[in-house]
## 1
Amino acid sequence: MGTLQTGSITGSLLGPILGGVLADSLGYATSFKWTSISIFISDLLVIFTKEFRIEANKNTKSQYTSKVQAPYLL
């Protein structure tokens, strides 16, 4: 959760700064064009990227309570 929150705050802080720098240095039309191209490429990567699933061993627990910790957390 901390990593997700850090990414969210970082994007909220750096996004307007970078957008303002791009708009001042390149102009609005160019910055909008390059932003739309990068979003389109990201969209294609999300749509066409294959998801790999790792099967769990049948001998291990798949659910843990708050009293039992997962082996990788020890």
## 2
Amino acid sequence: MKSKYEMSVPLICKSCHSKDIYLSENKRFAKCNQCQNEYPGGYDELVKANQPRIDAEMKKMQAKVVKDAEKEMNDMLKKAFGSGKNFRF
């Protein structure tokens, strides 16, 4: 199984769904470059606005991890008991 899973969910503007967002250096202020919508809460406000998308992507990643773990376990069991005539997987 992979030892590291990575995922990236681009934050989008809650008004126009643009990914073109300016984020200040200290991440305390954000502004959509498309519709000029401002996020005075900065990065944290954007994350909160995008939480349903983030949760959906997390569920996809969790399903992939579970599927990979099941495959790994099946492969290990087949390797361990593959020559046995009384075992079937």
## 3
Amino acid sequence: MAIASQQLYQTLVEGTFDALIVFSVITWLLIVIKAAQHLQISWQERKFRQDFWKARDLTVAATLKLQGPTARLAQVGFHSLQQAGKPQSDLEHSWDRQVLLERHLRQQIHKERRSLENGLAILASIGTTAPFVGLFGTVFGIIDALTAITAQKSASIEVVAGPIGEALVATGVGIAVAVPAVLAFNFFLRRLKLIQADLDDFATDFLNLLQKAGFRAPLIPEEQPQTNSATPAAGTTQEAYS
């Protein structure tokens, strides 16, 4: 009976180590993915904001083919105004131009936030639970040591060293897994808040620009088929607003 109990406790301790290894792999995988995501976003944001504010007018700005949260926000804004200029019969487009624009911009900001939040809940969960998983292994490691003492009727170092050592290692591994997860969660949460603040600032500036234009969508010229002539076709650029 004692031998069976020892095997059970040993299995539970080993299962604890396996769970912590899985937690560690998930944590570092998410850290790499989120770091690459934020590096890409940083480059995209710099590129778009530089090109957007250097544009001659809203017509040129609306034709920018760039990626990133702010670029998608601007595209949603321009598309919203273009749809507002068309006759609509549903409740979705029954608002006036300004209210419809503000509503779509707000929805897009929330969508970008939800996208950036992916993976943060997992990091937070691992950071808070990994130490307790390690303690779980520690408890059964100590129970395993006590069971070994009872079965062999001896408290010598040879009997208790192995189970006690595994118990202490389980606690250390749990903490080692939790620390990177907590640090990564706090770092990426901070980055998320900064990106959302930048999106809010851009949305405010974007609304002010369109307010000067009377909340009218810029006329985006249609793409002309490529020809062998080096001279662009006349009428491909319009700077009027609908």
